[in-house]
Amino acid sequence: MNPVTMQLVAEKYIKMALEEDINYEDVSTNAVMPEYKKGEVQLICKEDGIIAGLGIFERVFTLLDPQTEIICKVKDGDFVKQGELLAVVRGDVRVLLSGERTALNYLQRLSGIATYTNSVVKLLEGTSTKLLDTRKTTPGMRVFEKYAVRVGGGGNHRYNLSDGVLLKDNHIDAAGGVAQAIKAAKAYAPFVRRIEVEVENLDMVKEAVEAGADIIMLDNMTPDMMTEAIHIINGRAETECSGNITKENVRTIARLGIDYVSSGALTHSAPILDISLKHLKVLE
Q1: Hey, which residues does 88 pair with through a beta bridge?
Q2: Catalytic: 101?
Q3: Does residue 240 carry a catalytic annotation?
Q4: Are the C-beta atoms of 282 and 93 separated by less than 8 Å?
Q5: First CA to last CA across the chain, in angstroms?
Q6: Catalytic residue among 38, 136, 186, 251
């Protein structure tokens, strides 16, 4: 992760995670290690996958003690194998013990997202369709989870509600229709913002094209409906497909000629990658 992003955005969330796990002391650690001793522990991968979040893993420990040293054997985006030594963490044994769970929570979660994302990206090879995430992220984890999607080879949709215009079903209902919603967005949003609109049927597709939408999201449409929608749009707007995207159907959808496929499953349903800190040694 970019160091500037880490300092400005991510670090406050890491601190909150540590404060959640350590209220005022780590009772277990302080009981067995009441004073400073230097030690080291190994970061071991327990299953194959894509590693992501090593910088966040490291920052957990250096926030507890800036003198902590992390010697990484791999980098974010690398394919790692079961049993592989990923890193060695060296420093105050109390820091190694107290930071372990929070650091691993981040690394396991982000590596799981990167691994799952990469498996979907591979299914799109040979097509022009790009894979995107959504805002269906864990509260307090969005900056990390969207980063993990990129590490896995996917792309990011808008980061938050301030980041772009996406007119969904309830926006359209509030405005009184597709054309009215697009007109209102064009009048309000800065001219540098593109306007995307979610549509559920072919009549809405026609209305969105005629109203000048920049991107048309085809929501929960059948392949036949999407084929007809792409024909209606005819290059006048970019196309995105969303809703119930799975590994089983994503390649079929891509072959229709969709520009983007967005999937909430990348962040809300990816299993963790099993990674552990093992073999702690007291050095002095």
Answers
A1: 42, 71
A2: yes
A3: no
A4: yes
A5: 33
A6: 136
